[in-house]
């Protein structure tokens, strides 16, 4: 027996019927699909990472996001990993990059002299407007080949002195030569 609509928003169900056996004829609303390309998702991820905005990161990743470089998958695991990175390396930041014409990001860390060093390549995959894979492959060659933005740009100046927060000393970021 099917559930019959009484009026808009109200439905009649026979109480004697087994609820698990009742067919639901109510129209279902399709889940919203974000029409966002991989490059835009990468940009949102980079901005959220650099702002240390975990909520913004989680808003653009699939609940079952694959994180092949960790012990588990899922958004909760990714959140734990990001928080650990921010705690271990408060000066770390991401910049936009391309590897073989595919959108990715490069993680940077300042060294003792305040120079930025490439630390990791971050690769993404997406489906239906959400990131489905966030991977950090152990591939030094790919990290070197990535075409990447320079982290000393004006838009990232606010992140240059994060080392001050731990040691209380002023440091200057210099471009590595």
Instruction: Supply the number of helical segments.
Output: 5
For the terminal residues, how far apart are their CA atoms?
A: 75 Å
Major sheet description: 6 strands, mixed
CATH topology name of the domain at 38-154, in short, is Nuclear Transport Factor 2, Chain: A
Gyration radius, rounded: 23 Å
Q: What is the CATH class of the domain at 38-154?
A: Alpha Beta
Looking at the chains present, what oligomeric state does this protein adopt?
Answer: single chain
Order of SSEs? EEHHEHEEEEHEH
Model regions low in confidence, pLDDT < 50 over at least 5 residues: 28-32, 154-168
Q: Into which percentage range does the β-strand content fall?
A: 25-35%
List the helices and strands and how they pair.
Blueprint: E1 4-7, E2 10-12, H1 38-50, H2 54-59, E3 61-66, H3 75-88, E4 93-99, E5 102-110, E6 116-127, E7 130-135, H4 140-145, E8 147-148, H5 162-167
Parallel strand pairs: 3-7
Antiparallel strand pairs: 1-2, 4-5, 4-8, 5-6, 6-7
């Amino acid at each position: 027996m099917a559930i019959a609509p009484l009026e808009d928003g109200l439905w009649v169900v026979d109480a004697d019927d087994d609820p698990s056996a009742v067919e639901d004829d109510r129209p279902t609303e399709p889940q919203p699909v974000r029409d966002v390309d991989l490059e835009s998702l990468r940009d949102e991820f980079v901005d959220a990472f650099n702002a240390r905005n975990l909520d913004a990161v989680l808003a653009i990743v699939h609940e079952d996001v694959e994180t092949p470089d960790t012990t588990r998958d899922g958004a909760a695991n990714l959140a734990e990993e990001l928080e650990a990175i921010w705690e271990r390396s408060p000066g770390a930041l991401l910049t936009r990059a391309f590897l073989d014409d595919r959108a990715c990001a490069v993680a940077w860390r300042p060294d003792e002299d305040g120079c930025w060093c490439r630390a990791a390549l971050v690769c993404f995959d997406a489906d239906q407007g959400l990131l489905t894979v966030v991977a950090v492959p152990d591939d030094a060659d790919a990290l070197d080949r990535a075409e990447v933005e320079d982290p000393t740009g004006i838009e990232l100046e606010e992140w240059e002195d994060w080392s001050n927060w731990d040691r209380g000393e002023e440091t200057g970021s210099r471009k590595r030569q």
